[in-house]
Fold these 2 entries.
Entry 1:
Amino acid sequence: MDPTDGGVPARWSAPGQYGKAVFPPGRAGEGERIDLGALAYDDVTIARLRELGAGPGWSCLDVGAGTGSVARRLLGELGATRVLAVDRDTRFLAAHPQPGLDVLEADLTAPGFDPGRFHLVHARFVLMHLPARQRLMARLAELLVPGGVLVLSDAVDPTSDTAPPSPYAQTVQAMWQGLQDTIGTDVSWTPRYPQLLHGLGLGAVAAEIHVPPLVPGSPISRFWAGTWDRAREAMTATGLVDDADIDAAIRYLDSPDCAALSPGMITAWGRRPG
């Protein structure tokens, strides 16, 4: 195991990237899929950022900003002075300009990535899709001003290994396996976030988990349905499910008989001393 890669085996490799091998931003409806995830998680994210002090006078960096929902709320709702939203593809950000919101098309994994210093550095559902995760976590911590806070959120799945067999459970497992095989996604290490942040020398480290309820027609149910449909090729390639299993799982999400636990979001944070 390579400890600098967040516990990823040294032999690990995946041929593709998020946004290329799966979930290309140019595919019709991709922005809407991302926004469904935002509807499920943004209120929790903004409440945590508010509690950590984000507001007037703060310069904020939002990495992997997607459609920009968090970045815009940092400005409009929390009153941050400046927000820099970074993504490898900024088409969704460019479609919704806002005063005070700066947009940078850049790749966190590029050797020269250094957009400045910030009171807040935030990345949600980013590191889980990237190799060398612990090195990237350290890179983000280096972008903090003294006293600044690093806030990282990623998926956590407390149920896949223990859920009773069903098309839903098999589909969730196939999703994680298919994304790992295709682009290297790994959520098995995300519960270690607090220890990893502490190991970077950050203080006041803490974490929380939010699991949105699976209710028919809810944003999170619609998000998973769209995600599985778009990742169908990678999921069926695992051999864990076929198209009929995925279709059954999608129907289950919209059924009054749905009684399952969704994968959730772990958020961890820590402050740079000073």
Entry 2:
Amino acid sequence: MSRHFEHDSVISGIGQSTVGRRLGRSDLDLTVQACLAAVADAGLTRADIDGLSTYPGGYSASTAGYGGPSPYDVQDTLRLDLNWHQGAAEVPGQLGALVAACTAVSVGLARHVLVYRTVTESSAQGAGGRASVLPAGPGTASGTGTWMLPFGGVSAVNWLAQVATRHFHEFGTTREQLAAIPITVRQHASLNPAAVFSTPLTREDYLGARMISSPLCLFDCDVPVDGATALVVSAADYAPDAPSGSARIEAFGTALRGRPSWDQYGDLTSMAAQGAASHLWSRTELKPGDVDIAQLYDGFSILALAWLEALGMCGRGEGGAYVEGGERIALTGELPMNTAGGQLSGGRLHGFGLLHEAVVQLRGGAGARQVAGAEVVVVANGGGPIAGVALLTADRG
């Protein structure tokens, strides 16, 4: 197989701010904390950073607390001298910021790119809950709101409840099966000191929780937090000098196939994850069976189920049976999933928390939740028409 641009880069440093509920800190404050930690972790200084990348860009946020600071604000605050920068939302999911950084390194526009994602949705919501930060107008989510708002489809939980309902109808998936995802990742979160929720979650707790948008209940929804995650993407030849170790990028899946819609995609049970996953496997000689850990986007539990199927970890429609009971996706199972608690228990860091945990696992630094011998991790971001996926490998050279 020919060499791909992904192989020209490594993730040389990671950093994360304090993560919590209603911290009352500015997005820029949290971003600076995470960025400085990532730069130091990479063994670099601010003077070494010549690229900057983020999702969705500070001026493209549709809801309060969602966008984070713009690259201009971060560049100015950190006094960076940049050869390249970008911030955009119309990319292959949240991982688009990482894809862009690797592209910039590969073509020689930058050598060390600082990539960050910041949310302050918990503080923005305050006591008003999610409804307090929803867009007021109908022109949201590629026009979805135009047709769905009049019928009460005001947010992603409503749109993805349709996906879950279709999956249940078509394949016989049950709530009892879906429960295994939030219950298992809560067990993982109990081993993560930074997780927002770490107390045990039982099957009875899940089935007795209030319904948010049938069939999705409270525990099927991720928990809004304030926090920032950052990483440094460096030229591959820097890997031996990265003091904390690095993670190699084997392949990206960035394809957008089918209608870019929350409710008009041809196969409502799979969404855009289908195209991105197919593209990923076309760019590597590795196969689904080579994956040691899956860090799958779980803004809602049904999304993680859809990603399992799209990536070929199980057959189409078999996701419910695959996760049932939780044994397969536990830390000691055949495919440990969302090992730091994901977004359902670790906190909604909008996919970048999953990316951070992937690198931690590949370095062997996850402590009590470390998966022994982890060499290959798949990281998937996005839901509905938004999808991007990366395959990371340990750097043992």
